[in-house]
UniProtKB/TrEMBL annotation:
Protein name (record): Transcriptional activator domain
Domain OmpR/PhoB-type: 4-107
Gene3D superfamilies: P-loop containing nucleotide triphosphate hydrolases (3.40.50.300), Tetratricopeptide repeat domain (1.25.40.10), Winged helix-like DNA-binding domain superfamily/Winged helix DNA-binding domain (1.10.10.10)
Cited CDD domains: BTAD, trans_reg_C
Keywords tagged on the record: DNA-binding, Transcription, Transcription regulation
Record feature DNA-binding region, as residue ranges: 4-107
Organism: Kibdelosporangium persicum
Recorded superkingdom: Bacteria
SMART domains: BTAD (SM01043), TPR (SM00028), Trans_reg_C (SM00862)
Record-stated family: Belongs to the AfsR/DnrI/RedD regulatory family.
Amino acid sequence: MNSRNGLLVELTTVLSFDVLGPVRGRYRGRGLELGPARQSALLGVMLTRPNVVFSPDELLHSVWGDRVPKSANKVIPTYIYRLRQALRVTGEEAVIERIRNGYALRIEADAVDATHFARATESMDAATMMSADDQYGQVASALEMWRGEPFEGLPGPALASERAKLHEMRLALLMHRAGLDIVGGNYAAAVLDLSDLQERNPMHERVACLLMIALYQSGRQAESLAVYSRIRLRLLDELGSEPGAALVTTHQAVLTGDQDALDRICGYPLVAAPVKNVAEVSVDAPRPSFPAEAVVPRQLPLPLRHFAGRGQELAALDQVGRATGHAFCVIVGTGGMGKTSLALYWAHRHADRFPDGQLFVDLRGFSAAEPVAVSTVLCGFLDALGVDPAHVPGDIEAQAALYRSVVAGRRMLIVLDNARDADQVVPLLPGTPRCAVLVTSRNRLIRLIAQHGAHPLPVDALSAADARQVLLDRLGEERLAAEPEAVADLLAHGGGFPLALGILTARAQSVPGLPLASLASELRDAPTRLASFDDEDRGAALPAVLSWSYARLTAEQAQMFVLLGLAPGPDIGLNAAANLVGVSAVRARTTLRGLEDAHLVRQHVAGRYRMHELVKLYAASRAEHDLPADVRPAALRRLVDFYLRTAHSAEHLLEPHSELGQVAEPSADCVPELLDDLRAAWTWFVAEHPVLPAIQRLAAEHGWHAQVWQLAWTADTFHRRRGRRDEAAIAMWQAGLDSAVEVGELAVEISVRRRLGQAYTRAARLDDATLHLGRALSLAEQAEDVLAQAHAHRALAQALDQQGDAQAALDQATQALRLFSELGHQTRIADMLNAVGWYRAKLGHYTQGRTYCEAALTLARRLRHRTVEAGALHSIGYVLHHTGEHTNALRLYEQAQDLYHDIGHVDGTADALEGIGHVYQALGQDVQARDAWQRVAELYATHHRTEDRARIQRLMANLDNGSR
């Protein structure tokens, strides 16, 4: 037994919970403090389904319903933390476990009193083989567990639903006990109990039946008939329906004094005697709606011939119901994602678990036709179950009650496919936990989860391996092996979408000689890609399937959906989406939640939304047809302006001494994101840097040239500090240069060309760097722009230093220092004082170098220029190390490293740590040297700096070999 299972067994023996009354927890007999009401309610929800993973969203809706607090993202982790503290009964916090993106309460179901109560209730279904005394004893033991209102005083729709279920169970036990009293001749006790039950359940027909029999057997026929009159009038008045067959039959038996019929009605299911046909009670008695013999429907459609993957989802379906005995699952996902195929595959594989039959209906919640009416489904199910259509009531509530009565006690599987909303599903739910229910929907159906205990099972795109297995199963290994590149394209652009893969393979199968490369070529271009998944059969065409989801959206959701199709980049943040549509963030969140519920977007991390590639193509195609001519450009301009304005404020937080002044005037209704500090700015750039190049391309396509080069500038500090030597910065600056040349602004071209040269320098593409930097200097000299000349000299110094020419770098830095001094540009004077000192130190002129660097440090501290301050500390540390002052060098290197780390400067942090390693090596402290270099290697590995990492690893290898 592993440690986890061992802990679970230990907890089961010492940890228990009572929910049949106020919620209590005990550890080794000692009470546990479970906290305030909502915290206890959260625990109560988890106690209803031990060992099942609850998402934070599910817990929120279970406890708060539709009134989720504004601080929702903080509430659940806080409550979980407090509950873990309260339940910390071993050496580890193991009772509530974080699993993926949710939480599970790790206890055995038997640790909860409601489990024993439910088990006792279910055992009464099989009680016909037990003696009356044994049955009475079991019922009494179960009822003794009841201490009051279940989950007493705890809020939330989930517990309200669970409370109702437990009351139903208790009612069943009380009725069973009353039936035993009647069978045993204890009529007075039965009348007393049943009168109380009827007062609290005035329209419960089984209670009325038993009370009528108990009264009749007590010699009180008139009172018995009065019970029937009262409930009949109430049913007609409140529900508009006549009493059910069992109550009518009881009434007839009391009228005629048919003791045989009364014994039979009361005895079922208390005794094992065979049941007579109720029609035999009296010639005049109405025929009951129940079938005389059980009918076993087998309505499952054929499953797909080829089904691949979904191992994790199938395993989750296997687990549903094992902990609680209540198998109810909602399979949710985008249209065409294979929800129905998954449900049918599982249903056929486990059909033997449901010997009393399987019911299936396509509710058409998302299809070209109108959704199926609930009454139509109920009538169809009742017919399949053998109920005479002539005896099916016309009222939906009565139909649902009859349906629940017919399936009561049976082991059946009900598959409700393609449900639009919870209202379509709730009347079709059986009233017994013996039946399993599978629902598929494109909506999340939160009410089924929160109020009816459904287990949500999201279905997303197939993994690459599973998608390839689909192609393999349908096309064969030989055909795939013959065109590996085409197969890779089919998998890449099919996006793991089962319907899309099915369409592609069907086209390939229909023409055996068709090269897969011809299909792949259609998919490479976005304009033709979506058309490749069209089909004459609209039910099998991806655009048509998606159109049915689109048609169900509100006007606000539809506009958000199509505009998201136009938004560039891999995902979009909440505030960006709000600007795209031109609404507040609060309103955008609500609209996005609707699209999430419809599984047209996915919130893959908090506050960021993503569309499947094919769904996004469909949304973009709808935008072409459905958006008014002026909406699209205005929305995209707001989006570009949002990114530019927010990036501009973020860049100034990263580098307060940034030289980028005001940016282009934004749209009137653009609302940039408010960033409070350096950490917020860095976090924003980390999240948005994959999107920014796409936003810049969008601006270029629309001719918004100022925004193009300014976007490159706003991202430059982030690119420099994050330490990756990739092409992102080069690409953005090249786009910026193209726009600067397009508008013909020489000053802008000079600045942008210089920045492009610096990006090439950082990427070690030094020929390109010197080409652009030389051109920038030449243009600056032609324009007699002294400041631009100084910047160009400074940038050339960096490029020449990278080439290993410290003397040439010193010459350029000296020129830059002279020009900046003439202009009185204090921040750049500080920067260049350090640069001149650094290059002198590299040339071995340590005394002169230290003088310059110390001057730079003094000025940087006065200006509060942390980047230059860190650089000067590093330079002085280098000088001290090379002049034998290792202890002082170490102190300055560490100060530099701390500063670089604080501002998120990866290159500076790595350089300072490398210097620290060299100092430790010089001091003979090899362990500390290795530790510093190992941290550098890890930094370079994180930022994909392969060559730099290899260089540091060689330093460590030399250290191990004793080389100095």
